[in-house]
Amino acid sequence: MRVGSSIWNRPERGTRGPAPGHSRDAIVAAAVVLADAEGLAAVSMRAVAGALGTGAGSLYRYLSSRDDLLDLMTDAAMAEMRPYPDGDRPWPDAMLTVARRQLELYRRHRWLIDAATRPAAPGPNVLEYFDHCLRLLAPVDCPDAAKFEAIAMVTGVVTLFARSEGAYPLDGVDPVAHPHLAAALSRPSSAPRTDLFDRSVRSLLSGLLAPG
Amino acid sequence: MRVGSSIWNRPERGTRGPAPGHSRDAIVAAAVVLADAEGLAAVSMRAVAGALGTGAGSLYRYLSSRDDLLDLMTDAAMAEMRPYPDGDRPWPDAMLTVARRQLELYRRHRWLIDAATRPAAPGPNVLEYFDHCLRLLAPVDCPDAAKFEAIAMVTGVVTLFARSEGAYPLDGVDPVAHPHLAAALSRPSSAPRTDLFDRSVRSLLSGLLAPG
DNA sequence: CCTAATCTGCAAACGGTGTTCGCAGTTTAA
DNA sequence: TTAAACTGCGAACACCGTTTGCAGATTAGG
Lengths: 212, 212
Prior knowledge:
2 copies of one chain form a homodimer. Chain A is mainly alpha-helical. Chain A folds into 2 domains: 3-70, Homeodomain-like (Arc Repressor Mutant, subunit A), CATH 1.10.10; 78-208, Tetracycline Repressor, domain 2 (Orthogonal Bundle), CATH 1.10.357.10. The first copy, chain A, contains 9 helices and no strands. In chain A, α4 packs parallel to α7 and α7 runs antiparallel to α9. Chain A is flat and about 70 Å long. The mean pLDDT of chain A is 93. Chains A and B meet through α6, α7, α8 and α9 of A and α6, α7, α8 and α9 of B. Chain A binds a DNA duplex through residues 13-21, 44-46, 54-58, 60-61, 65-66.
């Protein structure tokens, strides 16, 4: 994890040579279109290059790996988190607003769930996200480390919810082997709780950011 | 998601033909050893077959795809969750114990973080896990749906913690672009909170399982 | 017991992937 | 003007999951 070799501080091109026919932004934009339409697995170097009318090998003039492309895609999507709410509301409300925006972002770009979960060096828009969350948490009286952890946990919970929205329901459970499970599944489900997301975020925040 | 074609109710072999030289369990065990040592990406059909002294194509006599193998690996690892705690302790303590066991499981098999996150039909040991959690939550007075959601959320938070333990620290943040972030990173971190995991799980449980 | 159906192991092949490399041509710095 | 550095490109490499065809072994049914 040498920061010097990261995609975020490597220049897009040198000063010599002919003008490049493409750009990082154009490549990333094409990859995002592809991922939105057909999922992250469809984002192959050949497919992205094909969308730009070139060959797979040519992309390596702009990126050093497919992982770089995924990092750039992730950061480009995080730019859609703007604008961030002001700090004039109670901080739990403001954080919940940010979390909701993020959940909508994950719905808009389902591939982000996988792309953002991958270990990677955070790009400028991810850093901006962290920075704004810290700003919203400024009135909270607790150690910085706890704030970091709380932000990371809220972010993670958003991904959990986004993931769960595409999950399959349980079915065909053996009532002998798993009695409690079968019983719970056989009971008619009462009214769905629409506020599950809000409750999760709020209880996590209050639990992790208690003063001390 | 036809349950009839799932790996969990397909017989391992028919009645005719010579005795097979391998077994699903042996294949899964070899794959787990490989994943423990070199990660999930190293679990290729060729590598697993090589560890068993055969060819990649031969594995398809026992499994129908690599996804099947990953499903079997996941369920095999979940078997290590046993034994489950009794229901004679307060349910938040019991659930926390289960969550801690799961975190240890994820530390032992880091590949499980990725394998279990993948959408898949739950195997018998995963169903058993759910069943035991529901048993522990039997004294709680709230809808079954809320219990399902709480269990899923606790499970997800465990994966979040397991993932975060392998993350890289932030570094080299521009104090002009991200003032709050740079300030928080420059302040000396106080004593680490060792009870972050417990607090997260407990606050989630209390927030999601409030009576009603 | 014999035949036919079925299974096993194996090696080769297919289409796909990310990535590297060499080459020809173009632009710029010195 | 020369040399360095860059561009695009296509072929190639080493993998990957999976399919297929075949020889040999086993078993079920008559």
